[in-house]
Design a protein that fits this description.
This protein has 136 residues and is an alpha/beta fold. It has five helices and seven strands; from the N terminus they run αβαββββαβαβα. It has helices at residues 7-16, 32-42, 85-93, 109-117, 128-135; strands at residues 19-23, 46-50, 56-57, 60-61, 73-78, 97-102, 121-123. Helix 1 (7-16) crosses helix 5 and helix 3 packs parallel to helix 4. The radius of gyration is 13 Å and the shape is globular.
């Protein structure tokens, strides 16, 4: 079973975080990943697009994979289908990042347990923009 941190704990994490790598960030303004990431960028977060299919979005050069992100990442926010989470979780475990956050409607028990066993903070099936709005 997947258990998320409390809303108050998520609020603390969001207050501390500065850099968010967004896996699956689309350059289409109609897509949820674009709207959520733009809102977070407008709230002062540094957004790092992770998508091999685009070169840039929100004025930021995209990287092809998490391993291509330079420096520390506070939150990896995932906008991919649930079946891709185990693979993304393995990539996440190989970079310098604190929180694995799967967007609303995205969850996978295998990925959750893999990351929890390694001691990571994991949030699934929650919208980062909604949590940010409710806790700021």
């Amino acid at each position: 079973m997947i258990e998320n941190p409390s809303r108050a704990e998520m609020g603390q994490m969001l207050k501390k975080a500065k850099r968010i790598a967004v896996v699956g960030l689309s350059d289409n303004p109609e897509r949820t990943s674009y709207m959520v990431s733009k809102a977070m960028q407008d709230s002062g977060y540094e957004i790092i697009p992770v998508n091999p299919s685009i070169s840039e979005v929100l004025g930021v050069k995209a990287v092809k994979a998490l391993k291509d992100v330079e420096g520390h990442v506070d939150i990896v926010n995932v906008f991919r289908r649930s079946e891709f989470l185990p693979e993304i979780a393995k990539e996440f475990a190989n970079i310098d990042a604190d929180i694995f956050w799967a967007q609303l409607g995205v969850e996978n028990e295998e990925a959750y347990h893999f990351l929890m066993e390694k001691g990571y903070t994991v949030i699934m099936d929650r919208c980062i923009k909604v949590e940010h709005a409710l806790t700021k």
